[in-house]
Amino acid sequence: MVRSPASSSGRNVDFFCAVVIVGLLAGVAGLSTTFVLRFIQHLTYNYSFGALLAGVTGSSPVRRVLGPMVGAALAGLGWWLLRRRAEVPPLAGTIAAHGPIPRLAWSVDAMRQVLLVGSGASLGREGAPRQFAAALGDFGTGWLRRLDSRDREILLACAAGAGLGAVYAVPLAGALFSARIMLNTWHPRALGAAFLTSSLAVAIGSASTGDHANLDWPIGESTYLLTAHGLLVAPFALAVGLAFNRLMAAARPAREPRGWMLIPALAGAGLVMGICSHWRPELPGNGRSILTVSLASGLTLAAAAAILLLKPLLTALFLRAGGAGGLLTPSLATGAATGALLVLTINWMAGTDLHVPAVSLAGAAGVLAVTQGSPIWAAIFVWELARPPLWLFLVFLMTSTGAHGLNRLLSVRVLKRDERVG
Questions:
Q1: Could you tell me which of 409, 339, 405 has the C-alpha nearest to residue 374?
Q2: The CATH number fitting domain 224-419, selected from 3.40.50.2300, 1.10.3080.10, 3.10.180.10, 3.40.50.970
Q3: Using CA atoms, how far apart are residues 114 and 129, in angstroms rounded to an integer?
Q4: Helix (H) or strand (E) run with residue 31 in it
Q5: Minimal CA–CA distance to 384: which of 242, 179, 202, 148?
Q6: How far apart are CA 363 and CA 358, in angstroms?
Q7: CA distances from 287 to 120, 264, 284, 331, 340 (A)
Q8: What transmembrane ranges does the database entry give (predicted)?
Q9: Structure confidence by residue, pLDDT tens digits, 356-387
């Protein structure tokens, strides 16, 4: 069917209006989930100001254990009530299949995720704003009748990426998440929509983020020799990223838990988190505390090793118990611990003084490239989180592309071996 010029023009006008609406609503979604998350964190650990790490460190031993347990139990109760009555289909699959958007179910599920992560669960906070932004975006653009199914797919993917961009103040990474990870395209129409929606969402979200980087980059010397160390980190990032993916795949239940056992299972996971936080207060939450400490060079060899082991295990525990949430920031924090462990080991054994924050973030970029399958996006996301000197982007890119390239080579070798065996 050939569209008339008037029809195409009207469709383009509707699409532009929809892009603006989606960007604004994604910003509202990011802002609202951030406010709710902070409220729950402050309530769980009984503090008024500062980051989650300060709240966990300053809370009483009893509250540090009971807070995550009670919050997780309440989230389990909410999911039990929700899943008995409604389906909560996966975001990416629903968008790609052009299926009906469960606006209410996604919105309610998003708030359950915020409750769980806010009370200390080792899951990412990015899943909630992506779902909520997609639900709001679908609601806000439903009256535009001249949009076709591909337009709506682009808009929903842009809403998800813009929601991610809004909560982490990463406009470029939010746009590329929509185009490259959600849509897997470089089409100008999709790219333009993604950049506009993400920029608008981050502008709205700046009411919470303060229009500055999500992480504080330390003032200190770093040298261009770090570029070579970016490749050194790559094989370690590959190994950790593959292990992280396999652990999460094994932990995720084959069928979404719906029974009342959700409540004690998640409460038990919260109890384990509370106990672990007595020794390592960086563990509760999505992983930002780990990134903060690693950038401040506050990790010892033993602490980095403990976090590298415990963070993915706790994330898998919450998944196995039936919780829902993102895996982006837990994998990012695991990668940061990998980089910190490697550079601290080198500094200790060789007597060098390599820059711990730079190598730590390089490890984060490498693991993220393996878990998300997009090395350029991983490097951009990590750089935007802390906004270090621009040349350090090259270090992150070297690690992410190195880890991704090694992963591709390994996949080809495994495929050839299976073909020979078959």
A1: 405
A2: 1.10.3080.10
A3: 9
A4: helix 5-45
A5: 202
A6: 9
A7: 10, 24, 7, 8, 14
A8: 12-40, 154-178, 190-210, 222-244, 259-277, 289-310, 330-349, 361-383, 389-410
A9: 888 899 999 999 999 998 999 999 999 999 99
